[in-house]
Design brief:
Radius of gyration: 18 Å
Number of helices: 4
Oligomer: single chain
Distance between the termini: 54 Å
Number of strands: 9
Strand content: 35-45%
Structural class: alpha+beta
Helix content: 25-40%
Length: 188
Amino acid sequence: MKNLILRNLKKLILISFLKQINLINSELLFNQNLNANLNINLDKLSNTSYLNNLNLKVFLEEGEIIIKDSDIDWNQSIKINLNNVELTNENNEIKFVGQVNFDFNNLSKFYSYYQITRSDRKNIDKISLDFVFNLSQKKMSLDNLKIDNKLDNNVNDLLNKFNSQNKNIFNKVTFRNFVKNVFSNYEG
């Protein structure tokens, strides 16, 4: 009985998500006359024990959908900040385009979780990068990765290679390996 309830709940969530995508595709939210500010604050997110304290600010401004001054805490070790992330709908492709910043407050916990070798562990405070997340194609591309406000050519070459391979960054193993490669390539 419990499995049946869970399956039905998952179907309901999937249907709700698909309706939201249809709402975005309808361009109703991109109307020039629609203006709104949405503030979403959540202490805990379901289905994950690592993400909490979501503070999401969404602005609908004259046909644009923008996320500003938003953040979430990852595993009590990183504050992930989103600022000036825009939701676009061009040529029937829905994309999030913007910048994300990772502010480290417990670097050893982060290194331990991602199993970064001791020789690759550097003392860093912040990572920032630009991204394009294509919701329609479920692909992500990353660019201009800066560690403590400095570009590292080796790391950005790795990003270009990663982007060209079209790997699924949302796969847990792929993402973990990607993070390890970033730190092994960073000369810092």
